[in-house]
Structures are given as structure tokens and as C-alpha cells.
Design a protein that fits this description.
Low-confidence stretches: 422-427
Subcellular location: Cell membrane
Mean pLDDT: 82
Membrane topology: Multi-pass membrane protein
Keywords: Cell membrane, Membrane, Transmembrane, Transmembrane helix
Protein name: ABC transporter permease
Oligomer: single chain
Strand content: 15-25%
Distance between the termini: 40 Å
Structural class: alpha+beta
Length: 799
């Protein structure tokens, strides 16, 4: 029976090759898009899922609350891990600290000659961290390998890079920052790409404790690179731990500071999806975006299924005699339903095969967009095969069930006499489906237009400084390098095309944001924290920052003077900025005088408001030299800068990037979403309009004789085209009216995630209507014009 059904299905599909091609094209593109979206979502949901005690692992988050703001950081005060290990011993099995950092790694060969010199990110971790997160150890173990200072653990990949073969690495030494010789005591397996912990070089935490300054015991200074993880005891709930946090804060923080400080515990499974807090891998995607992608996938599939239903129900009339004869010959309705569903299943399977080919073609582009290795291997990930099987069954049912019910329900007598017509209910359903299909299309068009406008706004919005043509060149900060700072800066300033240079800890807007308590005008600590940055006397000139009161920083190697921004003074209720000049500020244990006020600038992305900022000079904290370049001489100037840098600092590794690129990285997620919206909006538009073309083709075929009679009676070609087009244009117009309020809700909610955003106006909605109506007009006019100019004799000669 199945063989017979398949044979009949194949004959019917071959008989209507044009409509079959339209259905396969629409379904295959829709299914390929769904497969791509599923592969990506599966990959993102796989982050950090292989740790043994995942449900009991939490990261400690620090928060600051003021009457008008709330801010969180993944960092903690340096003394916190030891304090929590002591105070929460009844609730936590383990408390582990990890500190981010970086520097120059050098390795010597057997003859004592330097063989490798490379700049690498490193982490300092204590043994407990590796007992919380169970990385695979190839050699050594946490307690033996990281319990002593000046020891280091490498990933097998890094072991191969530094020593040729990781098996030879243990027992060897590497030099770090030109001042520490670290003994390799263990090897861990390379962390997978779907991990928030890209550990390649892990130095013992005791080494960091020996290097750290006063902040090691300070509860008032928090860096986002200082993280703490905890492992709950079995049977202990995080709510129970939270009840003890107020007591912990009272014990360790000063009373005048704690009105704003707090802690919470972030589950391990949330780390990859929290854009505000981030992680060491800098790989974050919010679950809202994953939900958005899933909804787009559903829209794509729904649009393709609507195409199928519309064409199948439209064709149902032409298959009336077939149904009548089958019923007269004894076919039961359920047998007819099975036959029609078999046809749908055949088309769906063919569409899936074509969709798999399209997926393979599109996969490299998706990998390039997301900068991740996304695999389409059903052997490696059997869940993909399960998804495709479910997809086939779901599409076959959604697209085939209603047409099968309609066609199997025809009266045999009327069907054989060919008196079956499209009933009003069926016609109304087709119109509703077309409206739904185009409403989805229009929502995506509006969403795409708004996303692109917001991205353009972010690129063009003044940030309070000038990021164009500013190179950020990494510099070492050890004592030997500091003695050469003046020479390096002097020589770079002489390079043609270099307009100015400035040593600093970070650019005005950067990922490096150190929040600290401070004291203003010898009073108690302020009830909010300030973002602290350091720079030399050229900082304001190099970045184009505007001083609006007083003056900039004077030439100095140590903290003497401070410049603050407008936001800080506003939060201190200082209205006249000149009144702040001469007042003292104490921050990081150092006291100085306010000499100037800088105009507000965005120190983070446009998702966030401007922070209170304190700037000062401090030679020991510099890690960047910013170079303002003539935009016409960037390439030769950068080549000369690298050559100069290597001449002055030959022991170190050169590294540089541009301010524009760093700012662009803030909006990587928005860029990806914008690209996806453009691609999938284009796909849905294509699917919708090939379906529309198929539907108008069938309608035109059904009304061939009517068109011919009207033409004989004097109707013009334009009138005939208007007659065939009218209902379709009206349906698309109604789809716009349905889509507008839904699109408005969507774009308003998305824009609300930005502190600085465009206003939603009517133009994206009008433009979406123009686009949809224009493409509809062109699509249906091509086919209706062909019907209107057909030879009337061919249509009427059998009447």
C-alpha cells in the first residue's frame, strides 16, 4: 500500500511540476534556515554543560546600589574568597579564586638561548578553583601543581606551542614578564570552544598574592578580572546562603560604604548568557537573542507551510474528479487522507535533502559571522538528526493535514461532475493565511530597518571624545620598561603622521573599568563608586576630550592632581563646577587636588549610562600608549611605530589595535543580529513572494476563460491586470495593518535595552508597506499580465 501511495504521489507531483518546484523551493529554504538556527542554538546551549557539579557551582557577583543607580560586576574584592571560605564553611564545599592577567612569556631552548617570546593572557588560580570546576588533568593535580608560588599549569595546546610536545613540558621553566621564572607542574586538557573558561596558562594564586599591592587586603576596590567561585554543599540551597550575606557585609565592609554594596550568586549555567557581566572567554549571548532566533525559525517554517497550504487548497478543485472516482471505487476517507499526506511527506523529504545541501553551503558564512566552529555533523551531534526527523514530521503534518481534510471530504457525485468550487470558507482561510504570512514578513522588514537605524545611530553618535585614527599600542609595565617610557614616546612623536601620544591605563571607553570608593573634600566616603582611569598630560589632547572647567593634568609621574567628569560632580550635588576646583579627592589610598572638570564622555557602550569618572596620572599603572594619527598616513606611521617599539623594547612583544575597532566590539551582538535580520527577512520575503507567485498563477489559470470573455467584451489589459491584482494588494495592505502594532511592541522592547537610542517613528512602518506593496504588485502583475494578453481563442475554442 505504501509503495502504491508513493507511486501515485510521485505521478501527481510530476504532473504539476511548477507548483511542486515552488513548494520544494519554499520548504527547502525554510527548513535549511531552521536547521542552521537549531545548530547555532544547540551550540550556544552547550556552553559549560560538562562540569560534574554544574547545578551547585556559582560565581560571586558584587553590586552597588545608590538612590539613582544600580551596578553589578563579576569581580570581587581580593580578600573576599578567604573570608567566604572561613565564614561559609557550613554552606560551601569549596571557594576558589581566579584572577585574570597577561604578560610576556619566554622560553629558552636546551642551550639557554631564547626560543619563544609571546604575549599571552594568563589566569592566577588557587587549587580550590579546579576542585570546583573539574577540568581534565593530563599530568599533575590541583593540590600538587598549584599549591606553591612560582608554579604554572599549561593546557596541552600551550604545552605544544611552548615546548613542541606537552609531554616534555612538566619540570620545565618559563619566564613571565621578564621577572618571574615559573616551573611547569601540570598539564590540563585544552578547554573546548563552548567554554567560558579559556584556560591556557594558569599560574598559582600564591604567585599573584606575592605580586599584588595594597588592593590584596582592600575591601573598597574591585576589579572585574578578580573572580570568585563557590561550590555549594549537597542539600544546601542558595537561598539559605543569601540570608547570611547581610551579616557578611556588615562584618567586612565599612558602614559608610555598605549602604550601596552587596553580593549575589550567579549560577554557572547563566554565565554564558549574561551580557552585562561577561566572562573570561568574552563569548556571551543573551537568551533573549536565542529566543528571538528560535521565533524567526518558527516564522520561516510557518511561512513555508502557509505557501504549501495555500497552493494545495487552491489545487484541490482541479483534483475533484480524482477524489470522486476514488470514492466511487471504494476508497475510504482515511485512505485518501493517507494518500495526500504521503504526497506532502514526499515533498517534505525532498525539501529536507535540498535543505541539507543549502545548510552545508550556508554554514561557512554562519561560522564567519559568529566566529565559532559550528558543526553540522549528525555523527558528532545525533540530536541534529532527531531534530530533522521531527522537522519532517511536523512540516508534513502542518502543511498537509488541512489540504488532505479538504480534498478527502468532497462529495463523490459533485466531484465526478466537476462541480467542486472553492467554497467561501476555504477562500477565506487562504486569505487569512496570506495575511498572516505577509504580517510576519512585514514585522521582520520593520525590525530589520529599526536595527539598522540603531546601529547607524551608534556609529554616528558623538561619544564625548574622538576615537578616529587613534592606535592603542600595548606597553609593558615592569620597572625595566618604565625607565624607557620617555625614550619610546619621544621617538614615536617624531614619526611623520603622528599628531600626539599619551600613556594611559585605558582609553576613555574600554573594557577595563575599575570601580572604587573615594572621598571628596575630606568628608566621609561618597555614597557611590567612581570609575578610575590614569593618563598623562597629553591624554585629553590625544583623545579629543574637552576640559570645561580648570585645566588638564600636569606632567607628573605620580598622583598629585585629579580631573573629574560632570556626572561625578552632579552626583555630589555640585552645580557650579568651578567650586570643585581645589577640593581634595582620596582614592586608592592616594590624595590629590581637583584641577579640572572634563566634559562627559561615554566610558562604556551605549547600552549603559555614563559613569562618574576620576582621572589622574600614575606612571606605574600605564599599560597603553595611545597614538593619534593623521588619517592620511596611518599605514606608514603604524609600520614606523612598530619598528620604533621593537628597537626601544626588544625584550617584549609588540601589540596594537585601533580605538574604532575596540568600540565596534561593544556592538558585536547587535551587528550579528542585524546581519541575521537582513538575511532571514530576505529569506522570508523570497519564500512569501514565490508562494504569492504560485497562488496568482493558479488563480490566473482558473480564471482563464473569465479573462477571455471579459477581453472579448472590451476589457483592456490594464483593467484585467487590476482585476487579478486587486485582492492580493488588499490582503497585503491588511497584513501591514496587522503587523504594525506587533512590530512596534517588538522594536520598542529591543530599543529599551539601550540607554542611548533612536526614537521610533512612522518611517520604518511606511517603508515596510511600500516595500511589501511594491514587491506584491510586481510579482502578481508579471503573472496577471501574461494571463491578460493570452490569446482569447485558445481559452474559448472548446466552449
Amino acid at each position: 500500500m505504501l509503495k502504491l501511495n508513493l507511486k501515485i504521489a510521485w505521478r501527481n507531483l510530476w504532473k504539476n511540476k511548477g507548483y511542486t518546484l515552488i513548494n520544494i523551493l519554499g520548504l527547502s529554504i525554510g527548513m535549511a534556515s531552521c536547521i542552521l538556527i537549531f545548530i547555532f542554538i544547540r551550540y550556544q546551549l552547550s556552553f559549560d554543560e560538562n562540569f560534574k557539579n554544574e547545578s551547585r557551582i556559582y560565581r560571586v557577583i558584587t553590586s552597588w546600589t545608590t538612590p539613582d543607580s544600580f551596578f553589578e560586576s563579576p569581580g570581587t574584592a581580593r580578600p573576599l574568597p578567604a573570608a567566604m571560605r572561613n565564614d561559609f564553611s557550613q554552606q560551601f564545599d569549596k571557594v576558589g579564586a581566579i584572577q585574570g592577567g597577561g604578560g610576556i612569556i619566554k622560553v629558552k631552548d636546551a642551550s639557554g638561548k631564547e626560543s619563544i617570546k609571546t604575549a599571552e593572557d594568563v589566569q592566577y588560580a588557587d587549587p580550590d578553583f579546579f576542585e570546583i570546576l573539574d577540568f581534565k588533568w593530563l599530568e599533575g593535580n590541583p593540590r600538587q601543581s598549584l599549591s606553591q608560588p612560582n608554579t604554572v599549569v599549561l593546557s596541552d595546546e600551550m604545552g605544544d606551542k611552548l615546548f613542541g610536545d606537552w609531554h616534555k613540558a612538566v619540570g620545565q621553566s618559563i619566564n613571565f614578564k621578564n621577572k618571574l621564572d615559573l616551573k611547569v607542574t601540570g598539564i590540563i586538557e585544552k578547554t573546548p570552544e563552548n567554554s567560558s573558561f579559556p584556560l591556557r596558562i594558569v599560574i598559582s594564586y600564591k604567585t599573584y598574592q606575592n605580586l599584588a599591592g595594597p588592593e590584596l587586603t582592600s575591601w573598597g576596590s574591585v576589579s572585574s578580572s578578580s573572580e570568585c567561585y563557590v561550590l555549594l554543599k549537597k542539600g544546601v540551597s542558595i537561598e539559605e546562603v543569601n540570608r547570611n550575606i547581610p551579616q557578611f557585609i556588615d562584618k567586612y565592609y565599612q558602614k559608610d560604604d555598605i549602604s550601596k554594596e552587596g553580593h549575589r550568586f550567579q549560577p554557572l549555567k547563566d554565565i554564558h548568557y549574561n551580557e552585562e557581566l561577561g566572562n573570561f572567554a568574552n563569548k556571551v549571548i543573551s537568551k533573549k537573542e536565542l529566543y528571538g532566533l528560535a521565533i524567526i525559525g518558527v516564522f520561516l517554517l510557518l511561512t513555508a507551510c502557509i505557501n504549501f497550504i495555500n497552493l494545495a487548497t487552491a489545487q484541490a478543485v482541479s483534483r475533484g474528479k480524482e477524489v470522486g472516482v476514488r470514492k466511487v471505487m471504494g476508497s475510504l476517507r482515511r485512505q485518501l487522507i493517507v494518500q495526500f499526506l504521503t504526497e506532502t511527506l514526499t515533498i517534505t523529504v525532498l525539501s529536507l535533502l535540498v535543505g541539507c545541501v543549502l545548510t552545508e553551503i550556508a554554514l561557512p558564512g554562519m561560522q564567519s559571522l559568529f566566529k565559532d566552529h559550528i558543526s553540522f555533523s549528525i555523527i558528532e551531534h545525533p540530536i541534529i538528526l532527531v531534530f530533522m526527523l521531527v522537522l519532517v514530521m511536523l512540516v508534513s503534518f502542518l502543511a498537509g493535514f488541512y489540504p488532505a481534510m479538504v480534498m478527502s471530504g468532497y462529495s463523490p457525485a459533485l466531484a465526478i461532475k466537476n462541480k467542486i468550487t472553492a467554497n467561501a470558507g476555504g477562500l477565506s482561510l487562504r486569505k487569512i493565511l496570506v495575511v498572516v504570512q505577509f504580517a510576519i514578513t512585514i514585522i521582520l522588514i520593520i525590525g530589520t530597518l529599526v536595527v539598522l537605524r540603531q546601529m547607524s545611530y551608534m556609529r554616528e553618535k558623538p561619544l564625548g571624545f574622538i576615537p578616529t585614527a587613534v592606535a592603542l599600542v600595548d606597553i609593558p609595565s615592569d620597572s625595566m620598561a618604565i625607565t624607557r617610557y620617555h625614550t619610546l614616546q619621544d621617538q614615536i612623536n617624531k614619526i611623520p603622521g603622528v599628531l600626539s601620544t599619551s600613556y594611559c591605563s585605558a582609553a576613555p571607553s574600554s573594557d577595563f573599568n575599575n570601580e572604587s570608593n573615594f572621598r571628596y573634600n575630606s568628608t566621609v566616603n561618597a555614597n557611590f563608586q567612581a570609575n578610575t582611569k590614569t593618563g598623562d598630560e597629553n591624554y585629553f589632547k590625544t583623545f579629543g576630550l574637552a576640559i570645561i572647567a580648570g585645566k588638564g593634568l600636569a606632567k607628573s609621574d605620580t598622583v598629585k592632581n585629579f580631573v573629574v567628569n560632570e556626572t561625578l560632580l552632579k552626583k555630589l550635588n555640585v552645580i557650579n563646577y568651578n567650586e570643585a576646583l581645589g577640593k581634595t579627592i582620596r582614592v586608592h589610598g592616594k590624595t590629590g587636588t581637583i584641577v579640572g572638570v572634563v566634559k562627559d564622555f561615554n566610558n562604556r557602550s551605549l547600552h549603559e549610562p555614563i559613569s562618574p569618572i576620576i582621572l589622574n596620572s600614575d606612571k606605574e599603572s600605564y599599560n597603553t600608549i595611545a597614538v593619534k594619527l593623521d588619517s592620511k598616513s596611518i599605514l606608514p606611521a603604524m609600520q614606523a611605530i612598530e619598528k620604533t617599539w621593537n628597537n626601544v623594547l626588544p625584550e617584549y612583544v609588540y601589540g596594537a589595535n585601533f580605538m574604532d575597532d575596540k568600540i565596534s566590539e561593544y556592538y558585536q551582538t547587535e551587528k550579528i543580529m542585524g546581519a541575521l535580520f537582513k538575511v532571514f527577512a530576505g529569506v522570508i520575503i523570497f519564500i512569501s513572494f514565490i508562494g504569492l507567485f504560485g497562488l496568482i498563477s493558479f488563480v490566473a489559470t482558473q480564471r482563464t476563460r473569465e479573462v477571455a470573455i471579459r477581453k472579448v467584451l472590451g476589457a483592456s489589459t490594464v483593467e484585467l491586470v487590476k482585476m487579478l491584482n486587486g485582492s492580493f494588494l488588499m490582503m497585503v495592505f491588511i497584513a501591514n495593518l496587522v503587523a504594525w502594532p506587533l512590530a512596534y511592541l517588538f522594536v520598542s522592547k529591543w530599543l529599551a535595552t539601550f540607554t542611548y537610542r533612536i526614537e521610533v517613528n512612522v518611517w520604518p512602518f511606511i517603508l515596510a508597506m511600500i516595500i511589501s506593496m511594491t514587491i506584491t504588485l510586481i510579482t502578481v502583475s508579471i503573472r496577471s499580465y501574461k494571463a491578460a494578453v493570452a490569446n482569447t481563442i485558445d481559452a474559448l475554442k472548446y466552449e
